[in-house]
Specification:
Elements: E1 11-15, H1 20-32, E2 36-41, E3 56-60, H2 66-72, E4 77-80, H3 87-92, H4 94-115, E5 118-122, E6 137-138, H5 156-170, E7 175-181, E8 184-185, H6 203-213, E9 218-220, E10 226-228, E11 230-231, H7 232-245, E12 270-274, E13 280-282, H8 283-298, E14 309-311, H9 313-317, E15 328-329, H10 332-338, H11 346-361, E16 362-363, E17 366-367, H12 370-380
Parallel strand pairs: 1-2, 1-4, 2-3, 4-5, 5-7, 6-15, 7-12, 8-11, 9-14
Antiparallel strand pairs: 10-13, 16-17
Length: about 400
């Protein structure tokens, strides 16, 4: 596949373009390339300012619809970001989580195998399963996977994601690449419960919500689990390293005096961890870092910020909760094959995320309403983030 960033004939399909990662990837594709974008989602809340972009076509549609799947698969590059990835739903809606994260992606994979599209599928670091506190580096091609018991419906998400990877790898003729994110964080992540979403978001948005509301952050099972946090800007850089590899050339080929012939991409039939092992913290340590950063942003003493409190996993998430105690990614494969390594340090990741969250959800000295949040998205669309093209407003979608 000959992918050149200045080729106006290339169209990339981004499924889930209205979500957290989709927002950043869409902006980066429009800024860094001449490509066109076919964007699919059920909600375009974050990207209203892009809906009339002449290089974009948007479809309000669901992967549960075979007609939508067939249309997506017409494009040469398909990035599937769509998923149910809200932890509280893994227990309460296990069957729906499995359908969303296996049935629908499997149908898209089948369509891409028939059309010849390159399918870049976002999986999860949770496929590594119920890791112990002394687990070492998680390697894409050698680490054994042990999931929790069937009674622990918390593993419905990971099981579906892992089965999707297995299915894609077994489909004859499919050009595929799997991305395994390790806790991407940054501006526009998730939602604030009771303002522009319901339920329990992922940990960073969860803690950010508590800080803005002046409530104590809740440490599930004492916050002893360890995670590595990765800037969404590094994640976008990974995607461009992957796109470059999709041309079938090594990144340094010209400098090495190679030929101009295009061969099969080294990225095909591979899974890649995308994470930053240098940014490992326990969840309790994360809470304390965020307290200090929040106090700095607000210009107040850290002692005035509520101290975190402990809560059991079952009390917080519901019956069926279980967890892995450590997820430390091996990142040598992406560095070796794609020339990519995440570089944004943890405090910068957290400050980027929390600064945006405070500015977006704290309006005129109070927590924003749904209307305030929408207006804030609109205002963001006229500003610059300094790292990426910016944002969006509203909650309408446009049928393509």
């Amino acid at each position: 596949m000959n992918l050149q960033f200045n080729d106006r004939s290339v169209t990339v399909a981004i499924v889930g373009c209205g979500g957290f990662v989709g927002y950043h990837l869409l902006n980066a594709v429009l800024c860094r390339t001449k490509w066109r974008v076919f964007g699919v989602d059920l909600d375009f809340y974050r990207i209203q300012d892009k809906l009339n972009n002449e290089r974009c076509e948007f479809l309000c549609g669901d992967l549960a619809d075979p007609a939508v799947v067939e249309r997506i698969a017409k494009y040469p590059v398909v990035v599937n970001l769509a998923a149910i990835c809200t932890p509280s739903r893994y227990m309460a809606e296990a069957a729906a989580v499995i359908r969303s994260n296996y049935d629908h992606p499997a149908a898209l994979a089948e369509a891409c195998a028939k059309s010849g599209s390159w399918l870049i599928h976002f999986s999860t670091s949770e496929i590594y399963g119920r890791t112990a506190d002394d687990s070492g580096l998680l390697d894409e091609d050698s680490t054994p996977v042990v999931l929790g018991p069937v009674a622990a419906s918390r593993w419905s998400y990971a099981t579906a994601k892992l089965l999707t990877e297995r299915y894609m790898a077994g489909l004859s003729g499919l050009k595929w690449t799997v991305v395994r994110p390790f806790n991407f964080v940054g501006p526009y992540m998730d939602f604030m419960p009771g303002v522009d979403g319901e339920g329990i978001p992922r940990v960073l948005a969860n803690f950010s919500s508590a800080l803005v509301r002046g409530e104590p952050m809740k440490l599930v099972n004492g916050g002893v689990a360890r995670r590595c946090f990765t800037s969404v800007y590094d994640a976008v850089d990974f995607m461009f390293a992957l796109f470059a590899a999709g041309s079938g050339r090594q990144l340094n080929m010209a400098e090495a005096g190679g030929t101009s012939e295009f061969t099969d991409s080294p990225a095909y039939s591979q899974a890649f961890n995308v994470g930053n092992p240098d940014n490992e913290l326990t969840i309790a340590e994360l809470a304390q870092r965020m307290r200090k950063i929040y106090a700095s942003i607000k210009g107040v003493a850290v002692e005035s910020v509520p101290v975190p409190v402990e809560v059991s996993g079952e009390a917080y998430y519901g019956v069926g909760y279980d967890d892995s105690l450590r997820r430390l990614p091996s990142v040598g494969k992406a560095e070796r094959m794609l020339g990519f390594r995440a570089a944004t340090p943890i405090d910068e990741c957290l400050r980027d995320s929390l600064t945006w969250f405070v500015e977006h959800y704290f309006v005129d000295g109070a927590v924003a309403s749904d209307e305030d949040a929408a207006a804030s998205f609109s205002k963001d669309a006229t500003a610059s983030s300094g790292k990426d093209a910016t944002a969006s407003s509203g909650k309408n979608c446009v049928a393509g």
